[in-house]
TrEMBL record:
This is DegT/DnrJ/EryC1/StrS aminotransferase. Its cofactor is pyridoxal 5'-phosphate. Belongs to the DegT/DnrJ/EryC1 family. L-glutamine:2-deoxy-scyllo-inosose/scyllo-inosose aminotransferase subfamily. It comes from Streptomyces kanamyceticus. It comes from the Bacteria. GO terms for molecular function: pyridoxal phosphate binding; transaminase activity. The lineage of its organism: Bacteria, Bacillati, Actinomycetota, Actinomycetes, Kitasatosporales. The keyword Transcription regulation does not apply. Gene3D superfamilies: Aspartate Aminotransferase, domain 1, Type I PLP-dependent aspartate aminotransferase-like (Major domain). Pfam families: DegT_DnrJ_EryC1 (PF01041). GO terms for biological process: polysaccharide biosynthetic process. InterPro entries: DegT/StrS_aminotransferase (IPR000653), PyrdxlP-dep_Trfase (IPR015424), PyrdxlP-dep_Trfase_major (IPR015421), PyrdxlP-dep_Trfase_small (IPR015422). Keywords: Aminotransferase, Pyridoxal phosphate, Transferase.
Amino acid sequence: MGTVAMLRAAGVGTGDEVVVPAFGNVEVAEAVVTAGAVPVFADIEPSTYCLDPDAVAAVVTPRTAAVVVVHRFGNQADMGLLRGVGQRHGLLVLEQGDLGESHDGQARRRAHAAYLSGRLSGVVTPTGGAGHSFQQYVVRVPGNGRPDRDAFARAVRVKGVDCRVPVKTPVHRMPEFWRDVVLPQTERAADETLALPVDASMSRRDLQRLVSACNALGGLLQPAF
């Protein structure tokens, strides 16, 4: 069942607010609008890129009817804490996987991710426990006031690395959903994150070339934390 259908089935509609992440798919906010409700954006946890339970609780109002939780990049949101917020405030808590993710080759992707995390320098490698499926291998390239992530991406692409910016513009900064709210972790993640290839089809030589290309640019960066 899609998000719109789930919201409508739960009676969510005109006059209701639904808490959603701004980091990621605009389709989630669009689904809320299609159901007749108003999307309200909450900040994310910097380690998982999923909704921060405390941030969700902070934006709940008497009009809030539901929360849509998106599991991002293969990270799992803290559903225990998020359901706890829902129970305290009488909210429906819906889950959605990262749109377009595939479950094929998870073991191989995890092995590739472990290889990269053990060898990459100059970028902040992803954290995640056993539940992280690495649908995308997302690193952080610290900005320090400059667009280092973008410069880094251009440089590694020249070396043949097929990287991409996973979230170019947070949803709350898109014209059709503009909100005068401050979501520091969301905005920082949008500025710093870069998805490096970790496809199951990659060979060890492919991974070695990726590491060499990225580590050669380590001097460009400043520590993130």
